[in-house]
Amino acid sequence: MHSPPPPVTRDLVLVGGGHTHVAVLKHFGMKPMPGVRVTLISRESNAPYSGMLPGLIAGHYTFADAHIDLAPLARFAQARFLRDQLVGVDLENKRVLCAGRPPVAFDLLSLNTGSAPGVRRVAGAEDSVVPVKPIDGFFARWTRLRERVAGTSHPVSIGIVGGGAGGVEIALSIRYGLARAAEAAGRAGDNVRIELFTDSSEILPAYPVRMSTRFARILEDDGIVVHTDHRVVRVDGSRLHFGNGARATFDELLWVTTAGAPDWPRESGLQVDERGFIRVRDTLQTLSHPDVFAAGDIAAVEGYPRPKAGVFAVRQGPPLARNLERRLRGASLAGFRPQREYLSLISTGRRHAVAARNGLTVAGRWVWTWKDRIDRRFIRDYTELPSMDGERVDDGPAPAGSSEAGSGGRGGASVGPGPAMRCGGCGSKVGSELLFRSLARLGATGHPGVMVGLDAPDDAAVVQVPVGQVAVQSVDFFRSFIDDPFLFGRITANHALGDVFAMGAEPLAGMAMVTLPLAAEEKMEEDLTQLMAGALEVLERDGLALVGGHTSEGRELAMGFSVTGTARPEDLLRKSGMRPGDRLVLTRPVGTGVILAADMRGRAQSLWIDAALALMQESHRPAARILGEHGATAATDVTGFGLAGHLLEMARASGVEVSLGLADVPFLDGAREVARLGIFSSLHDQNLRALESVRADPRVTGDPAAQLLFDPQTAGGLLASIPADRAEACVEALRAAGCPHAIVVGRVLTEGAASGTPGVLHLHAGPVR
Ligand SMILES: Cc1cc2nc3c(=O)[nH]c(=O)nc-3n(C[C@H](O)[C@H](O)[C@H](O)COP(=O)(O)OP(=O)(O)OC[C@H]3O[C@@H](n4cnc5c(N)ncnc54)[C@H](O)[C@@H]3O)c2cc1C
After folding, report:
1. Is 288 in contact with 300 (CB distance < 8 Å)?
2. What per-residue confidence (pLDDT) applies to 430?
3. What residues are labeled active site?
4. Residue of the nearest CA to atom 8 in ligand 1?
């Protein structure tokens, strides 16, 4: 039996999955600190590696080649991964303010959020240009541009603002990428005019003259027109206005100028330099707040002015990790000296690059190969992670008390001894004050049907069922499958509501049951607040009032809801109503179970996880309404037993045989890949017992996708039987209402087609409409 993890006593929060924090995550994965919980907050789930961006645009690399997938890395680090955007820091209360959830508390904070071209410094630019960062926005725009150019022979013009390494590399990569796209479309030339503008008197002003002369020639050879001494003073729509009075108009305007800082560091009260970057010591501790560190582009190291380049952010990884660890231990911090000279490798669009160091330059295909090797090694360091079973270094117990670290300081990050273990039974109930404090912070709203709810001290809630209606009740409860309590709250609430909607009912009231892992009381309050905030958002979105709850301590985070809905008896949708000839309509793709199972093993791509998490939070309300409007005769929500298991339940209850076409069942991205790897949820084997009621076409037997029919779903889709003549209209309406994967997956067999064994599922390889 595993012993429970030590209670959380301190929170290390990392914001931004930049070049520095990937090293910090790996460090804490190799060397976890008992009692320290690491949390990563990142806007994107995939961290782009700057050195490979030009190659990604030119088409030498795939998205996966040039990005570090943060989900498996965070899993390796045993870190919570919160997909969110920092919008400020409440330094007094030590909380990170996020765009999409309640503030996240920290004891120690580290910021590695990078920089973005300063579009706000030029009037009109923010509204009209495409900044190269954030990269995902730029990459999506670039993909569309490439498709547009490939699909037209009309001339297209692109203006690029910025004559540093970024601007030059982007211009050359775009030229190369567009030429290849045109070639692939069967045209000789790309018909694209590219012009590059810089306010300096030459391109690459920070590099040796030989480098800028060489690149001026390469740009010219590639037909890219360079305008030096052109400072953009205003952008108006697609037109650039320059300080010298000139103007130029383009179809696309790309912005690759000097890095700028966001406003939030200054607005939050962090000490910043004249450009707005966070001032840090050579220990990477901020000048103003000893429990806040910063690294990479967002930081300005005192006494070591350096350009904003990924190479510095990368080098800061190990010293930052060591200093965060020292701060947590209460030990003194160690300074480091950023290097002055570094190797610059700039690609020329094709598989060719120029290197510069100490004033010397060399060029060639071999330089590109060299750069490629360095870049791929960096990505591999954070994507091919060692197996840590039994290998983690135990640091021993966390020290009690705190001592000053580094210079300055308002109390160390170390906190007192961890919470004592408590009793089970009623003794494990978390103090009601904690629950009420959390709920008070969130301000739950009421419901007209609730007579006695959260705002009353009574022993039980009282709800009024409207005259002529019946109460529809259900309960669900499960252990947390993700490390983000806010998202877990949202998904658990949505999952519970699925039962009410599947029955054709309207949500009325519900109660929450929560198990919180033991931690310092303030940590438990924070977790509960995040959890309940997520749940309340979804419950209120769908019109269900939270009227009570029970919270207790346990080994791991778990949550569930008892929910009550109301419906007119004649509107109820039961499993038993299927009629021969009905079509089976499924509203959502299948595969959440395998994606979550792969995530637990660090084997799922973030893109798959993000899509699955988004799906699990979507409301069933519009789909339930549409199924009802199209005369649904029976319905269920696809959850723990998987699609096949729930369909069999319906068939048995209705006394009919059903057929399902595997070819039409929609699956989440990644689900088939995971099934092929043989990774399944722990419930999967139990669900396979339903196979005794399945008559499968031999062509289906070897297909791993067939296994996905038994994959337990969390907040899975609604499955309904719809009269045959209304099924297509129903699917169309579902798609128009935001269920793009809605589809007819099978039918209820008529007497002539049936084998005479009610409760059997006939599984076919092809479609069964
Ligand atoms: C086209 C181009 C090519 C470049 N090539 C090179 C090169 O070859 N070599 C080199 O040394 N440098 C290069 N650079 C510069 C390099 O990109 C930056 O210096 C480097 O990315 C900085 O790293 P970082 O870790 O500080 O931040 P980033 O790599 O920008 O990472 C910051 C992360 O934080 C996340 N984030 C940002 N804001 C928030 C927020 N508010 N909340 C939550 N998360 C947030 C982002 O999602 C991002 O993943 C290039 C730049 C460009 C534009």
Report:
1. no
2. 59
3. 426
4. 51
Q: Where are the beta strands (DSSP E) in 133-231?
A: 156-161, 192-197, 224-227
The amino acid sitting at 319 is: P
pLDDT per position as a tens digit, 367-389: 999 999 999 999 999 999 987 55
Q: Which amino acid is at 365?
A: R
User: Cβ(166) to ligand 1 under 6 A?
Assistant: yes
Tokens of 402: 């705190």
The Cα 594–Cα 600 span in angstroms is 10
Q: Supply angle C-alpha 668, 672, 677, rounded to 5.
A: 135
C-alpha span between 40 and 507 (Å, rounded)? 35
For the four alpha carbons of 480, 484, 486 and 492, in that order, the dihedral sign comes to negative
The type of residue at 574 is R
Check if 40 has its Cβ closer than 6 Å to any atom of ligand 1.
no
Distance 324 CA to ligand 1 centre (A): 21
Question: What's the 165 CA to ligand 1 centre distance in angstroms?
Answer: 14
Look-up of token digits 């637990």: 600
Which of 39, 50, 278, 606, when mutated, tests ligand 1's pocket best, judged by the most ligand atoms within 8 Å of its CB? 50
pLDDT in tens, 151-200: 777 888 999 999 999 999 999 999 999 989 888 888 776 689 999 999 99
**Closest ligand 1 atom to the C-alpha of 345?**
8
DSSP-based three-state secondary structure for 683: coil
- List, in sequence order, every beta strand (DSSP E) within 536-618: 545-554, 558-567, 583-586
Q: Which long-range contacts (CB under 8 A, 24 or more apart) does 205-212 make?
A: 205/163, 205/164, 206/164, 206/165, 206/307, 207/165, 207/344, 207/356, 208/356, 208/359, 208/360, 208/361, 210/356, 210/359, 210/361, 211/344, 211/346, 211/354, 211/356, 211/361
Structure-block tokens of residue 9: 């006593």
Q: In sequence order, what are the residues at sequence separation of 6 or more whose Cβ sits closer than 8 angstroms to the Cβ of residue 303?
A: 282
Question: Residue 691 and residue 706: Cα distance in Å, rounded?
Answer: 11
Mutation pick for ligand 1 pocket among 49, 60, 113 (CB with most ligand atoms within 8 Å)? 113
Task: Of 16, 220, 283, give the one whose Cα is nearest residue 134.
Answer: 16
The answer to whether the CB of 67 is under 6 A from ligand 1 is no
**Burial label, 416 (beta-carbon count in 10 A; 0-12, 13-18, 19+):** exposed
How many whole angstroms from 276 Cα to the centroid of ligand 1?
16
Kindly tell me the burial class for residue 108, based on how many C-beta atoms sit within 10 Å of its own C-beta (0-12, 13-18, 19 or more). buried
43 lines ligand 1 (CB under 6 A): yes
What is the per-residue pLDDT for 3? Answer: 61
Judged by phi (left if over 0) then psi (alpha if -120 to 50, else beta), residue 35 lies in: left
